[in-house]
Design brief:
- The complex is a heterodimer.
- Chain A has two domains: 48 residues, no CATH class; 231 residues, MetI-like fold (Orthogonal Bundle), CATH 1.10.3720.
- Chain A has 15 helices and no strands.
- In chain A, helix 4 crosses helix 15 and helix 14 crosses helix 15.
- The longest helix of chain A has 44 residues.
- The mean pLDDT of chain A is 84.
- By secondary structure, chain B is mostly helical.
- Chain B has a single domain, classed as MetI-like fold (Orthogonal Bundle), CATH 1.10.3720.
- In chain B, helix 6 runs parallel beside helix 10.
- The mean pLDDT of chain B is 87.
- The chains are: A mainly alpha, B mainly alpha.
- At the A-B interface, helix 1, helix 2, helix 5, helix 6 and helix 7 of A face helix 2, helix 6, helix 7, helix 8 and helix 10 of B.
- Chain B: Keywords: Cell membrane, Membrane, Sugar transport, Transmembrane, Transmembrane helix, Transport.
- Chain B: This is Multiple sugar transport system permease protein/putative aldouronate transport system permease protein.
- Chain B: It is a multi-pass membrane protein.
- Chain B: Belongs to the binding-protein-dependent transport system permease family.
């Protein structure tokens, strides 16, 4: 790797004409690409801080126009959004905790060569990735278990992802040296103690990646909530969002301050942009910190697949 | 024999650990497979899964004969084929381009920005699309307006639906999908590049003769594996994008199962399960075939 960089640096010093053209074209294309991904994101943030009249008359291009916080004021005044935010926080934290514990409990034994029957268990797990009972039988099961319209329906049906178990198992297999296990077994260390005090401390990166994948899943989940939850008290943020953003169902109360129909229409659009920002920001804040970990996670996953 | 039992006993803790996840898999994955038998029954809630009378292949026949069948099949395949083909080259191109960027800060910025949309929720993504494509207040129509075009009501046209679905998918996933190709590129032996530079190869030549052949095996295998998912349309996103006007090109098997089973006035669990099972079986066969093919190719590229 270092060597390659050196080679490239050397070649940069005597870059030929065609290489210079290539470099310029490459940077231009990547910049265009960068803008295409970035622009919608910037636009949303700018629109959310602009005045409602500027938003609907199409005056916002790059930076906020006539900056205000009226969109955010309307968002935070809304009880459904606040409630949804708290619910989502609960589902994400509790759900991810359950996910992680169960995944470790599945992945660690499967990573041990001396775990009798692991071939059969592995097959049992992997088969569920290839074939499933389908939406309706799963729905009926959740109903029969009495989880309908409870917090449990948000936490338990998706408590384990086999894919993540496989990634974690591969990590355990490749990073925990067998000698460590043998040495501690000689010292009379039990399996659970070994897992807790040797394996876990060595598995920080993989736990971070898997936690991120699970947490993003919970934070963004709307479909299960839509079919399992009836009472709006339990609605996660995404379901509230869906009503407002996609179904365009906005309480007149939310638009309280606006007097005229045009002002209402404007605030309605503004509100959507502010909502998008409020919902997406928590993930986007966490994301740069875990970015280097998840690249690793993707790699371990692909090694296997 | 005795030694075997002793070993088993000694590792009882591993089994204790493994029990809860195993129970989870059995209850939440295998019990629904057992429940899928209602596809062959006339299911009634009062009689339960095992008590309902058998109906043979009636539900399946009904589905194959219904006028929805071909439309669902066509939409499902065209959306997933379109996605598969259109989204194939972009992550590779992005990775190839990034591989020749020497400016670390620029490279990191591009990577960080292009990964970010992957974390945006589908609800937000579809919300964004609706905002941008709005005929009156949307950004796209304002831009088209400059050139005297439009306004178009994109979301209300069946003919636009699949393109909007696919290109927004690419926008959201290209950065994330490119990670694996970047890794493949960094594992190419640097000596190859050095030798090529010594021989006076240009960057374009190096890309063509070193980088592209270097990542081709992984690209082909990924492509093959993705064809195994051909029936898996991103149905949660499609459901959000659907409206009465674009239904003609947006209704796929999964959304139809959801509607027949859980939304429609005359909820029909057996019929919906049968349609879902039909899809699951075809998907399963497809996956097996494709995995076989991928294995063969992997071996060939190894030897």
């Amino acid at each position: 790797m270092v060597k390659g960089d050196e080679g490239m640096r050397k070649s940069a010093m005597r870059e030929s004409g065609s290489d210079r053209v290539f470099t310029v074209v490459n940077y231009v294309l990547l910049s265009v690409f960068l803008i295409m991904v970035l622009y919608p994101l910037i636009y949303v943030v700018s629109a959310s801080f602009s005045s409602s009249s500027a938003v609907i008359s199409g005056k916002v291009w790059l930076w906020p126009v006539e900056p205000t916080l009226e969109g955010y004021r309307a968002v935070f005044k809304n009880a459904m959004v606040a409630k949804g935010f708290m619910n989502t926080l609960l589902y994400t934290v509790a759900g991810t905790a359950i996910n992680l514990v169960l995944s470790v409990m599945a992945a660690y034994p499967l990573s041990r060569k001396d775990f009798r029957g692991r071939g059969v268990f592995m097959l049992l797990f992997v088969f569920t990735m290839l074939f499933n009972g389908g939406l309706i039988p799963t729905y009926l099961l959740v109903k029969d278990l009495g989880m309908m319209d409870t917090v449990w329906s948000m936490l338990i049906p998706g408590a384990l992802s086999v894919w993540n178990v496989i990634i974690m198992r591969t990590y355990f297999q490749t990073t925990i040296p067998n000698e460590l296990l043998e040495a501690s077994q000689l010292d009379g260390c039990s399996d659970i103690r070994f897992l807790r005090s040797v394996v876990m401390p060595l598995s920080g990166p993989i736990l971070a990646v898997i936690a991120l994948f699970y947490a993003v899943g919970h934070w963004n989940q709307y479909f299960n909530a839509m079919i399992y939850l009836k009472s709006s008290d339990l609605y996660p943020l995404q379901l509230v969002l869906r009503d407002i953003l996609v179904q365009n169902e906005i309480n007149i109360e939310m638009l309280g301050d606006a007097k005229t129909a045009a002002a209402r229409q404007g605030l309605r659009e503004l509100l959507k942009y502010s909502l998008i920002v409020v919902t997406s920001v928590p993930l986007l804040i966490v994301y740069p910190f875990v970015q280097k970990f998840f690249v690793k996670g993707v790699m371990i996953g692909s090694l296997k697949g | 024999m005795l030694i075997g039992w002793k070993r088993l006993l000694r590792s009882w803790q591993l089994y204790a650990l493994f029990l809860p996840p195993l129970l989870y898999i059995i209850i939440f994955k295998y019990v629904p497979m057992y429940g899928a038998q209602i596809a062959f029954k006339e299911f009634s809630v009062t009689k339960g899964i095992s008590g309902s009378p058998w109906a043979g292949f009636d539900q399946f026949e009904r589905f194959f004969r219904s006028h929805e069948f071909w439309r669902l099949l066509r939409n499902t395949f065209s959306i997933s084929l379109y996605t598969l083909i259109a989204s194939f080259p972009f992550p590779i191109l992005l990775a190839l381009g990034l591989n020749y960027v020497k400016n670390r800060r620029f490279k990191n910025t591009v990577q960080m920005v292009t990964y970010a949309p992957y974390f945006i929720s589908l609800v937000v993504l579809v919300g964004l699309m609706l905002q941008f494509l709005d005929p009156r207040t949307g950004l796209i129509n304002s831009i088209l307006g400059w050139f005297g075009l439009g306004p178009y009501h994109f979301m209300a046209e069946a003919s636009w639906f699949q393109s909007i679905y696919v290109w927004s998918h690419i926008w959201q996933n290209v950065g994330f999908s490119c990670i694996i190709f970047l890794a493949a590129l960094s594992s190419i032996d640097p000596a190859l590049h050095e030798a090529a530079v010594m021989d006076g190869a240009t960057k374009v030549q190096r890309m063509r003769h070193i980088d592209i052949p270097g990542i081709m095996p992984i690209a082909v295998i990924l492509l093959i594996l993705n064809t195994g998912q051909l029936l898996e349309t991103g149905f949660e996103k499609i459901l959000l994008m659907q409206n009465a006007l674009n239904l003609r090109s947006s209704e796929v098997i999964d959304t139809y199962v959801y509607k027949v089973g859980l939304v429609s006035q005359a909820m029909n669990f057996s019929y919906a399960t049968a349609i879902g099972l039909f899809k699951a079986v075809i998907g399963f066969v497809l996956l097996l075939l494709v995995n076989q093919l991928a294995k063969k190719l992997k071996q060939e590229s190894l030897w």
